[in-house]
Amino acid sequence: MGFYAERVVPRIVNIACGTKSVELLRRRVCQGLKGEVVEIGFGSGHNVPLYPAVVSAVSAVEPSDLGWKLAGDRVAATSIPVQRAGLDGQALPFEDSSFDAALSTWTLCTIPDADAALRELRRVLKPGGTLHFLEHGLAPEEDENVRRWQRRLDPLEKRLFAGCHLTRPIVDLVTTAGFTVTELDVFYDGAPKPMVAISLGTAVSP
Predict the structure, then answer these.
(1) The pTM is what?
(2) What are the Cα distances from residue 159, in Å, to 2, 37, 83?
(3) Within 13 Å, how many C-alpha atoms sit on residue 112's CB side?
(4) What's the domain range around 22?
(5) Element (H or E) spanning 115, and its range?
(6) Where does the Methyltransferase type domain start and stop, copy by copy (predicted)?
(7) Across 1-25, average pLDDT
(8) Which of 24, 144, 170, 189 could hold 137 in an S-S bridge, CB 3.0 to 4.6 Å?
(9) How many CB atoms lie under 10 A from the CB of residue 18?
(10) What CATH number should be reported for the domain holding residue 150?
(11) What's the pLDDT tens digit per position in 103-153?
């Protein structure tokens, strides 16, 4: 990664993904987490204050040293043990069936191989473990005009935000990886619509 991706983008994301409106969505997606949790795309730790008390420990997977540094105060303030335990969500350094739950927020849009990351999450989750996801991606099928704009803007989005995509079909990716979606809310979180087509849900590992 170059200077912009390493030193600038994590600071932009820290600010953009730390607003009050985003916190409300984070609070929703964190509901139901329990036990041992793996969080991919940990970023600067905005989810940390929202972990339920029944979470016993969190293994944070985050490639950015700056992102982890920005998370320092949040990690220090929680009573839940949070450890940076990996750098690559596409190749998790954990044994099979290690975790009760997994968390992914605004990660599947940017990780180079989302399919691989989801297969890895399925591998490390215990049978019946839950994946909690909050992602932006491809607009609903009925909104073809929004999708057209997403395809037009996607090259710019990827350049500005270190590989972030507007056109990934989040729910399809989750189900193709073998998860069963049990709760799902698809909506636009404000405007412009091409940038804020949100999928918030829970899926179960077989």
Answers:
(1) 0.96
(2) 12, 32, 30
(3) 5
(4) 3-204
(5) helix 114-124
(6) 38-132
(7) 87
(8) 170
(9) 15
(10) 3.40.50.150
(11) 999 999 999 999 999 999 999 999 999 999 999 999 999 999 999 999 999
